[in-house]
Design goal:
By secondary structure, the chain is α+β, with helices and mostly antiparallel strands. Helices cover 33% and strands 25% of the residues. Strand 5 and strand 6 form a beta hairpin.
């Protein structure tokens, strides 16, 4: 385990501890329409910032709540000029957390230039720590994980992330209905990071999203790749972390079928 991974796991677990300790004192505020933030989000992020600054003072830091007052602003990393940037979602799944549902987590990734070197996603409720280092495979609590062998969309359990506000005539609704018709079943977990990790360990077979942010997926996209998953942009183009819209699946065959279902939903088949 590298120093980066050791510190990343320390951050994720310490932030998870903060979230568990604060469950009884949740005071949600509206960050944007249908989008909440809590004091736990802020305290978890400050915990991450403190640990990372102590360990790597020259590294930059990008956290979700740095843009809480400007939800439409592009993310900007803070800290000294460095090619290393830690990308942290201190609480992915805030609404689940507020409603005392179990699907929420902490996501921590380290980016060097345009490449993500390591990622950690920690679910404090289940005490599950998903992790990956570039070229080193993916782990769950220290044990190797791999995607499922599902090759057919009609046998696939597929997750989706939709925007917080979805007009009735939105293309997202059409895509959701088309995938629901084609797949074995569909799920919305409310956490992009956990959805990616569940593809990585075979609990889900595929996942698509067109409305997530870099901190939601920086760690999870590496974990699913290192677990053997296929990942692309929504049109089958190469995935771009700074435009985190994607389709991921356990196998290339399933990935191609899901892309075709999404194209048909948009009237392009």
């Amino acid at each position: 385990m590298t120093d980066f991974m050791a510190v990343g796991q320390q951050v994720a677990r310490e932030c998870g501890r903060v979230l568990l300790e604060m469950r009884g004192s949740i005071n949600p505020q509206v960050k944007a329409p249908k989008d909440l933030v809590t004091e736990a989000d802020y305290r978890s992020q400050e915990t991450a910032r403190r640990i990372l600054h102590d360990a790597f003072p020259a590294h930059r830091f990008l956290g979700e709540e740095d843009t809480a007052d400007m939800p439409d602003a592009p993310p900007a990393a803070t800290g000294p000029d460095s090619d290393y940037c830690w990308i942290v979602d201190p609480l992915d799944g805030t609404l689940n957390y507020v409603r005392q549902l179990p699907n929420y987590c902490v996501s921590v990734a380290l980016r060097h230039g345009q490449q993500v070197l390591m990622g950690v996603v920690y679910d404090p409720i289940q005490d599950e720590c998903f992790s990956a280092e570039l070229g080193g495979g993916a782990l769950l609590n220290g044990r190797p994980i791999h995607v499922s062998d599902c090759e057919h969309v009609d046998q696939a359990l597929i997750a989706a992330s939709l925007p917080t506000v979805v007009p009735r005539n939105s293309p997202e609704v059409g895509r959701f209905i088309e995938v629901m018709h084609s797949a074995q079943a569909i799920r919305r977990l409310g956490s992009a990071a956990l959805s990616l990790c569940y593809v990585a360990c075979g609990r889900l077979d595929a996942y698509w999203a067109t409305c997530v942010k870099v901190w939601d997926v920086a760690a999870g996209q590496l974990i699913v790749r290192e677990a053997g998953g296929t990942l692309s942009g929504p049109e089958g183009t190469p995935f771009e972390l700074d435009r985190p819209q994607f389709v991921t699946a356990a196998t290339p065959q399933l990935h191609g079928q899901l892309l075709e279902v999404l194209r048909c939903a948009a009237g392009r088949c």
